[in-house]
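Researcher: Let's walk through a ligand-bound prediction step by step. First, I give you the protein sequence. Second, the SMILES string for 2-acetamido-2-deoxy-beta-D-glucopyranose. Third, you return the three-dimensional complex as structure tokens. Ready?
Model: Ready.
Researcher: Here are steps one and two:
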Amino acid sequence: MIFERDRQRLLLQNASQTNIGSRKLLLNNLKQSLFRQVSGRWMFRLAKFLFFFILFGYLLWLWIARPQVIIDENFGESDPTSADSDITKIETLCSQSTSTCYSVVDIINHKTASVQRGMYIDGFEKEYDTVKELIPPKGMTFETSDTRMWTINNTAITTQYVAAMITQLFTTSALPLEDSGDSERELLVIGLGGGNFDMFLHTKRQNIKITVVELEPVVVQLATRWFGVVDNDQRKTVIKDGIVAISEAKDRASKYDAVILDACDNTKEMPCPAKTFLTDQILINIKSILKPMGTLIVNILPLKRHEINVEKVVKTLLSHFPVCIKMHMSYEANVVVSCLPYSFAADNLDDTKQLILQRAETATNNLGIHRVLEYLDLTIVLK
Ligand SMILES: *[C@@H]1O[C@H](CO)[C@@H](O)[C@H](O)[C@H]1NC(C)=O
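Model: Step three, the predicted complex:
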């Protein structure tokens, strides 16, 4: 039917170029001779044409579009276990108090021609505590120089959960988006690893005071030697049990803008956070060393029974904090939770969520970590 009407219009257009008389004549011709007799044949031709047209289009799509759909299994060049990489062990040190050994490796990715440095606990080779990007000496590649001489790029974030912990500092008002008031800001970080979180922040926002507490002296040694971790007036590492550090901070009446709990134990089901931090007394102490607008940020790493374990931790946190904000990663099992000592009004949570998302987006753009996170997945959980 459509085709008939188009043809009619075409003929009428032709007709209007001649004169009105012949237009009438054409119309009559059209009705009487053309359509009654010919339209059946035209319809058949049209159907045939459409069939081949669609078939051709589909084959063309298969041929052109298909190979472009590439599934990127090495997102962010952060998968050190990829088949395209070579791993060279740099150093292994063992704890004197526990039997835990820590290994530092350089991971050469042939596909991206980049080198990363990682640290893992022996026995957990698949779960790196830290991965950092290396910077080659000018004009050098891994083929022409020893990667042990390369420097660390502290502003390159390779894991989503670290980007999420940084983002959580800004989702609420723990840290301002602008750096103007930074000199009055102070953070307490429990767990050093390779210093991804704190060295990134220290490099980007130099006036924020950061204290990192690490229980294991061997980790501090490796982080300083191989991961570009530095001590200065603004950022320092303290070798101490985090539980003791929190309790001492409470006795000193210190107040922090954020306490970041990134400490893990060696349980296989959920290594992070270390369970010793989830007692009532420790959570009460942490709450007492937060400023009124401060936040507690917790890295949760469930390796089994994901949902159940995350819910358990969040429930424990909510018994001391009125509200938590959960962030899920798209490529990692980690869930990063930020808990506040103050609450949100329950009747306009949607508006609050929009505001939080806006702040998170601005912060990740300003800090250049939006591509690591890929997208923001936030959930507000009230007590
Ligand atoms: C360090 O990493 C950042 C973020 O990926 C990048 O923009 C910067 O160019 C890197 N620096 C060097 C010296 O390679």
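Researcher: And what stands out?
Model: Residues 1-27, 67-79 have pLDDT under 50 and may be disordered. Residues 20-65 form the longest helix (46 residues).
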